[in-house]
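Handout, section B. The chain below has 95 residues.
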Amino acid sequence: MSFLVEDDPAKRRFEILVDDALAGFTEYLPRDGVLVFTHTEVDERYRGMGVGEALVRGTLDQLRERGDRLVPRCPFVAAFIQRHPEYADLVVVES
């Protein structure tokens, strides 16, 4: 099983392809130089296979490479960052 995470700016989301099939996405809103992540969804056929984790990890790795930061309003993204504090430096705290 191969994973590929890609940004689709037109749809404002990062998508994960599993063996070339769309398996899930995490949506964002660009705001004041950061991306606000609002929702993550994984197709039922791919749940329990680590696809959601791979999606968020791939997304955060790409944000780091680009020098971007985020606000994790999506509970799934926020929980992932709590479990993986090596990504905490990417988080912008809302006031």
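Note. DSSP finds two helices and five strands in the chain. Compare this with the example in section A.
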